[in-house]
Amino acid sequence: MNYFGVSGPKELVEVLDRQDYVADEGLATALYLAIALERPLLLEGDAGVGKTEVAKAVSTWLGVPLIRLQCYEGIDVSQAVYEWDYSRQLLHIRTRELVRGVESDENLEQLEDELFSERFLVRRPLLRALDSENYTVKDSELLPPVLLIDEIDRADDEFEAYLLEILSENAVTIPELGRLTSERAPITILTSNRTRDVHDALKRRCLYHWVEHPSFDRELEIIKRKAPGVSEVLVSQVATITQEVRRLGVYKPPGIAEAIDWARSLSLLGSDEIDAEVFAKTLGVLVKYREDEARVKDLDLSSLIRTALERVK
Amino acid sequence: MATPLEIALGFASTLRESGLSVPVTSSVLFSKSLSLLDLGDLEEVYWAARSTLLFKVADLDRFNRAFEMYFGVAPHASASAVKKESVTILIEDDEEPTDGGEALEEGEEVKTLRFSSREVLRHKDFGEMDEKEANEILDLIRKIKFSPPMRRSLRERRSPVGRRLDMRKSIAEIIRHDGETITMARKSKGLRKRKLVILCDVSGSMEPYSRVLIRFAQASLWGASAEVFTIGTRLTRITKELYGSDLELAMQRAADAVKDWSGGTRLGESLGVFNSLYGVRGLARGSIVVLLSDGWDRGDPEVMAKEMERLARVAHSVIWVNPLKATPGYQPLTRGMSAALPYVDEFLDGHCLDSLEKLVEVISHAGDNRHGPKLAATR
């Protein structure tokens, strides 16, 4: 079977690779199935392992809009789904009054219909994801947008329940307008940093994948892609040391994003190689807690640098 | 060759036999997935199974074993790197001063005491109670009413004296009044429960109090939305176990889950595990954190201080309840306790029913006071 020109997980790895997203087979399989089965994909993992980037890569691959909903404590329907444009509604009432004078009962009903029509609807991310405007047809195939629901663990449980309803029905009901739905579900990716457990019911609805920190080879490849122009030796050193720091059991293990930033910073400072001095100066890019810094300083830097050099050869 | 459906159902039942719960909808999803993939490629099959049938990373080990059992091939090496949910901290020696408190066994019957004796009971130290009194007290703790700590929420409510205009309501009013603006509806920020996290020390020295304090934590689940952990030599999350209408059964479930009852104490390190796995990640952020412990720590006081500081930095307030505090002449001199004290917002005793009721009072007010987490000025 062929979905958007891709016939299996291995091909998806290649396609994402062209978008500079280096995926492993586990993630590719989960993503492929999510697309084929039209199910949301829930990605969990430490901060900075590239959960959000997946959605961006898919959106550039398909050339479809990326619609992002950033969750936070207290998020509700008016910020996530829709709201009415009240100031324009008021203006409309006034204008009508000026033109027509006092309203008859019949007109009032008409006014209400006008006010609560699509014209005055403010579409928030979840509604936009169902909006035909964001669906494109390519080679007679309907391409849905990518919907990224970021950090779902920050939202409240009530919101999760509401989300579950939208995701399983692929429809939103607005009392004044009725049910809005789309022909094909958006490609939906949810991410969670696991500050709390997402409800089982939502997990059951989704495909689930735990995103690990990348292996050395993958990390090397990613840094090369995302920080072009940085020397091979430096990239290898950055990847080697980053992997080692993760193994130390620091409070906040550096993610791939930190490794990329570090490689870029080193390159900007004109270093071709890491030595003890440069390491101490730029450490703040890699670890973000004072306690972690202290632990990282105990690393056997010279042996790590040697390992990195051997790996390049 | 077996069909995708047969494979899916077979594997699902293997998973169930290994104790994982697999909803039928998920096994159907797995079978659909298989029909989309190359069945000869076991790595793809593995990842399909994982993304459709596994819901918790914690279950991964069992899942992998079941996979190997059913498909005859161990999952790919990269797949078995697992994050451990709970971390055991080794203790070199377990010699702890254990109070001579009576073991609080389950009683056969509970007699209702008369008012006067109940009054006496209110102030009696849990550590000095006989079994009958202990059972009576468990019953009384169940009746403690929690009013949850509150915080401002983003979600707004209608309120005639609110600061912001409720446009939705106002527009509806205007239409009702023939397009005439008469009054504008208002709204204000609502109140929401603030998270409550209870960490209960279950080490040997706390033995006379642990059972009572866990019952207290259980009571808090209903009124306030609490998360409950036990600390000792390891960290155990017992929130789920404590739920349920049969309190005794729930207590039993929790007791089974906790593997380090009356063991030693590595308070600082357990706290570190809590911080790393739950607390700093978000659970303790903006929450009221209640530590029920005598502060007896065999670990390094430096670690204790460091972890308390981390906790205090994210929590809204930290309340330390120490049953020993009520002892006349008590000074918080144990190394752990004195290391922790600079980061504690409220230091209370919790040795009797009366003091627990005071604790409930403090918790419900801890939510609204403005002062943030108290950071040690001494560092």
Describe the fold and architecture:
The complex is a heterodimer of chains A (313) and B (379). Chain A has 313 residues and is an alpha/beta fold. Chain A folds into 3 domains: 41-74 and 126-210, Rossmann fold, CATH 3.40.50; 82-122, no CATH class; 216-312. Helix content of chain A is 50%, strand content 14%. Chain A has 15 helices and 11 strands. Chain A has a 5-stranded parallel β-sheet with strand order 2-7-10-1-11. In chain A, strands 3-4 form a two-stranded antiparallel sheet. In chain A, helix 10 (216-226) packs across helix 11 (232-247), helix 11 (232-247) packs across helix 12 (256-268) and helix 12 crosses helix 13. The model of chain A has no long low-confidence stretch (mean pLDDT 89). In chain B, helix 1 (4-17) packs across helix 4. In chain B, a hairpin with a 3-residue loop joins strand 5 (226-231) and strand 6. Chain B has 379 residues and is an alpha/beta fold. In chain B, the strands form 2 sheets. In chain B, strands 6-5-4-7-8-9 form a 6-stranded mixed β-sheet. In chain B, strands 1-3-2 form a 3-stranded antiparallel β-sheet. The chains are: A alpha/beta (313), B alpha/beta (379). At the A-B interface, helix 2, helix 5, helix 6, helix 9 and strand 11 of A face helix 2, helix 3, strand 1, helix 7 and helix 11 of B.
